[in-house]
Amino acid sequence: MSTKSQQYLKNLRSSLKMKLYFLQKLPSLFFWGVQIKSASPERGQTRIPFGWRTQNPFRSTYFAAQCGAAELSTGMLGLLALVDQVPCSMLIVGMEAEFLKKATNWVTFTCEDGNAIQTAVQKAIATGEPQAITVSSTGIQEDNGTVVAKMKFTWSFKKK
Q1: How far, in Å, CA of 145 to CA of 126, rounded?
Q2: Per residue in 45-55, pLDDT tens?
Q3: What pTM value is reported for the model?
Q4: How far apart are CA 74 and CA 88, in angstroms?
Q5: Residue 119 contacts by C-beta under 8 Å, 6 or more apart in sequence?
Q6: Which of the chain's ends, N or C, has fewer CB atoms near its CB within 10 Å?
């Protein structure tokens, strides 16, 4: 792993740096209190609290807040894959969500598709053609291990 990638991972793991980044670039994640739990080239984990900022009228975590945390678990893997590359764009072109149970506590979203994302980025750079890849993120409630949501995001990577 390059020095630049290692620095990016270090920044992802810094609570203060991520809060400042969220405040500047993703204010909804800052407001909701989303945190990065762990980050590696293969796997991204985020977590979101249950509280007044994320709660809907039905006393569970608002679906949009869950989607934001889940998207971050996949998107940070895409950004990490682009760190040492020529300029590329990345964009969500599709999304599916399945909400299985009410989220009434902290939820951790995990994406383990980092290797597939890296492959898609390499192919986009090599061919010059946009590459779409669908990755998944699963939300598990921390207090009891219940799967509360499964989400799929289709990312498109394109060499600029």
Answers
A1: 41
A2: 999 999 999 99
A3: 0.93
A4: 17
A5: none
A6: C
